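Dear support,

I submitted the protein below through the web form. The confirmation email said the job was done, but the results page showed an empty box. After a refresh the structure appeared. I'm attaching both so you can tell me whether what I see now is the final result or a partial one.
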Amino acid sequence: MEPSDVKLGQDADFVRGAFGKIAPRYVLTNHVLSLGIDVLWRNKTARKVAELKPRRVLDLATGSGDLAAAVQRKCPDALVLGADFSPPMLQQARGLGLKNLMVADAMNLPVVDGAVDVVTVAFGLRNMASWPEALREMARVLRPGGSLFVLDFSLPTQPLLRWGHLFYLRRIMPWIAGMLTGESAAYRYLCSSIEKFPAGESMCTLIRANGFATAQTEPLSFGIASLYMATKAG
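What the results page shows now:
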């Protein structure tokens, strides 16, 4: 079986319901759980997007709009469109002053082929119903030579750091998130999904098998997160 045929992903209905419940305190909880480091990761991604001087950027699974807002600040002349299938999450994004927002499933985007220069997705691909199908849809809406940026959690490769991070994900993070949101079940899912998500070269292989000519990865914060950068064939 080819990597592009593997139907890896999540239960979309469960994910939509979970994010709808945690939307009001999603941003606060993220900042607490990451000690604010998630802001640095998004800013780094936005800077790399800005280096390409794009005219049109599509931020998928935009959620509370943090990455879309960071990209808009770095690319003031670009049209930055945020899409998410959770209306409660988009309501949070509107609170950041984002105006170009739409309710849309990343698996079936109401966007014509080759319409955007850059696609970004932060902590969202992991939660989609099919990672290969989502990547192919991202490639479809990108122009030839366009760029994809995927920011998501990963696991450190150093054994001691990996053990400590897994302990945090399995025991501490769901408890803290449950205290902040009252929805510990949603965060138990989110934490377990990190362990199942491809990382490093495995993710690059998956990206290249689904519409992209090149893909590379940059570990962030000792591998707690990773930034994947890919280019569609020109």
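Response: this is the final, complete result; the empty box was a page-load delay. Confidence is low (pLDDT under 50) at residues 1-7.
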